[in-house]
Design the sequence.
């Protein structure tokens, strides 16, 4: 089925150019999600990064609603008294009725207000609310599904909150509630069922059934129209969850998804075509000088190299200056996230590097949280040995420097043979002996609870990547989120990404894909697929994505083996690049960050909110759709300067020649960046929504 285009991003520029006016003085926005101040997955990043822009738009009338989790509140939220009088009365009324509702500021950019509801405190109402859900909506929730039970509690409490807020208002309010994902969707269904005066938006970041079907190794995208959705959901024991998600999609005033490919998925699985596609963005911080982010890359890379020195102690027989760091990160879904095809491609890359006698060594990191019980002792020992060697070298350096200083003070050249005594040599020999190792460097940094059945470790055993001295590809599986307080790899995720050379995300199911987007913003090339929202977005807006460090893997129209061969080709091609070519490519990748800035992409959330208000309150707001002009969008052309790919930039002469020098001189970073900026054209307005009262609309008519 072809990926036809509906409402999507076409052209992007600053919000200052957008002349839509909308009176939000009397409107209140509640944004409701299970991941408000509660990191579980990618939705947390969406809400956290978008909060600043939304706060600037709505000011004191913007409230985030999420679950109360004490451990998160202690570190992320400042609890305060409600500043809004109506909301204060609402929270007091709910607390007096047996709930526990907290109010505070989320300590992130924008400092938005948060309303946090303790779902566990009202668990005594679960059976009664389940009965009400069955009687009113014919949705039954089994007792053993804890996540669905939380969704029921959270849904009824958010509907209670919105209903009580409307009741406490002195005048009829214009309330807008934006619900994210099925875990919050039940609150939307209840709002419509109770006919509350609330305009609603439902955003699905991934469909439940889609995620389960893809995990089951089915040809998902080529059979979307053929699935019996009720049967498939029932077979996987998620029919009740699917019913909540589908009911929310059908009840809402405005239904949105995060990418074009998810819109097609939602249309077939949830049986409603999304009204808007709202791509996810990031808060992009531009550097005043181009070289600044390159310096950050060098600093972070040095810290990763220190970890590698310790991890491979005793087997450090490769040149770290010719070592490339690849990584994959995200939820531990072995097939959905493409870890299976990445490992197979690494095995093939290892063969290619060996037979071509390449001096390049690749260290591939797998950052995917799994069940562990502690750090691997051998891994910790490696870092301890590295630190001991550093301390020994530093101590010898201090003694050597002191003797050299004293010799120069008396005007004599030092006798090198006397600069180091027997004690120094003994100390250095002991340090060298401590680096001896009779086993291979470990593949996994932790002790896995299910080592024998773990998908990544099982695949590594099959392909034989055991970090041997002959291997040009080394693998490190880090089954834990990165943290700057870790005794093993003390780096946070952002710092780690900056230090790597390539992010590899060959996902089969990826509705958007924040990991490659974060790489792009930090100037790190990445591999994505034409089945991810990010990959489709970049293919739509860049004439030659690979020239800008965005490699798009075809997983839709190729077999697994063909896709794996293509990925291997991408990786081998990247390994052939010179250091200068990688620097040029990182500069180009970083320039694409403007495409992913919330200042641009936030307008689609703004349009969705305006559309919902106009549909729910037609007497107050007017909605006038406008057709886009004939000239749509923009595409970054292929750079006119030196191609970054060695396959395209290789000369016929095998030796260095003057032609290569002339080719190098063609690259002008500032000139190329200016040309890219000129390729961004003015956007059309998705919909002209004028915020006026009905009288203003009548005057125009």
Sequence:
């Amino acid at each position: 089925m072809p990926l036809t285009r509906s409402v999507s991003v076409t052209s992007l520029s600053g919000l200052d150019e957008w002349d839509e006016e909308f009176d939000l003085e009397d409107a209140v926005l509640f944004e409701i999600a299970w991941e408000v101040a509660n990191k579980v997955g990618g939705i947390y990043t969406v809400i956290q990064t978008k909060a600043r822009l939304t706060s600037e738009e709505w000011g004191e009338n913007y409230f985030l609603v999420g679950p109360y989790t004490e451990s998160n509140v202690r570190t992320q939220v400042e609890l305060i008294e409600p500043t809004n009088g109506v909301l204060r009365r609402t929270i007091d009324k709910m607390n007096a009725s047996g709930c526990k509702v907290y109010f505070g500021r989320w300590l992130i950019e924008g400092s938005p207000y948060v309303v946090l509801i303790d779902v566990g405190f009202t668990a005594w109402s679960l059976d009664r609310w389940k009965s009400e859900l069955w009687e009113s909506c014919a949705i039954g929730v089994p007792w053993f599904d804890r996540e669905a039970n939380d969704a029921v509690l959270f849904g009824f409490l958010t509907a209670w909150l919105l209903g009580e807020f409307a009741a406490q208002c002195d005048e009829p309010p214009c309330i807008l509630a934006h619900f994210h994902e099925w875990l919050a969707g039940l609150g939307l269904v209840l709002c419509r069922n109770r006919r509350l005066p609330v305009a609603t938006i439902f955003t699905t970041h991934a469909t439940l059934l889609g995620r389960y079907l893809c995990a089951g190794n089915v040809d998902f995208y080529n059979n979307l129209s053929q699935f019996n959705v009720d049967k498939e959901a029932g077979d996987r024991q998620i029919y009740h969850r699917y019913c909540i998600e589908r009911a929310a999609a059908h009840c809402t005033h405005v239904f949105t998804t995060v990418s074009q490919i998810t819109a097609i998925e939602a249309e077939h699985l949830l049986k409603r075509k999304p009204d808007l596609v709202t791509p996810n963005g990031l808060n992009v911080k531009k550097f005043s000088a181009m070289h600044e982010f390159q310096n950050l890359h060098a600093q972070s890379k040095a810290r990763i190299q220190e970890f590698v020195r310790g991890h491979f102690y005793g087997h450090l027989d490769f040149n770290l200056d010719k070592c490339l760091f690849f990584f994959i990160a995200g939820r531990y879904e072995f097939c959905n996230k493409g870890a299976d095809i990445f490992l197979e491609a690494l095995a093939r890359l290892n063969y290619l590097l060996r037979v071509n006698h390449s001096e390049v060594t690749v260290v591939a990191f797998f950052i995917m949280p799994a069940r562990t019980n502690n750090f691997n002792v051998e891994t910790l020992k490696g870092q301890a040995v590295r630190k001991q060697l550093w301390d020994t070298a530093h101590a010898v350096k201090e003694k050597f420097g002191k003797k050299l200083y004293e010799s120069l003070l008396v005007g004599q050249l030092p006798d090198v043979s006397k600069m180091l005594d027997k004690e120094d040599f003994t100390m250095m020999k002991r340090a060298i002996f401590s680096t001896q190792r009779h086993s291979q460097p470990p593949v996994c940094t932790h002790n896995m609870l299910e080592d024998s059945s773990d998908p990544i470790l099982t695949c590594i055993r099959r392909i034989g990547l055991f970090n041997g001295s002959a291997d040009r590809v080394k693998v490190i599986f880090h089954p834990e989120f990165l943290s700057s307080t870790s005794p093993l790899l003390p780096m946070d995720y952002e710092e780690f990404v900056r230090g790597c050379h390539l992010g590899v995300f060959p996902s089969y199911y990826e509705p958007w894909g924040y990991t490659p987007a974060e790489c792009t913003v930090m100037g790190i090339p990445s591999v994505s697929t034409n089945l991810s929202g990010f990959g489709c977005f970049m293919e739509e807006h860049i004439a030659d994505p690979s020239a800008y460090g965005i490699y798009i893997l075809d997983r839709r129209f190729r077999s697994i083996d063909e896709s794996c061969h293509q990925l291997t080709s991408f990786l081998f091609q990247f390994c052939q690049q010179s250091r200068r070519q990688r620097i040029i490519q990182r500069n180009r990748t970083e320039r694409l960050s403007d495409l992913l800035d919330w200042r641009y992409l936030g307008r689609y959330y703004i349009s969705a909110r305006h559309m919902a208000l106009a549909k729910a309150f037609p007497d107050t707001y007017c909605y006038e759709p406008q057709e886009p002009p004939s000239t749509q969008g923009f595409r970054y052309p292929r750079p006119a300067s030196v191609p970054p790919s060695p396959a395209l930039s290789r000369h016929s002469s095998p030796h260095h020649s003057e032609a290569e020098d002339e080719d190098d001189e063609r690259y002008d970073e500032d000139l190329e960046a200016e040309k890219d900026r000129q390729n961004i054209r003015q956007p059309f307005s998705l919909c002209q929504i004028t915020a006026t009262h009905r009288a203003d609309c009548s005057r125009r008519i």
Observations:
- Residues 2 and 222 are 10 Å apart (CA to CA).
- The first helix runs from residue 42 to 58.
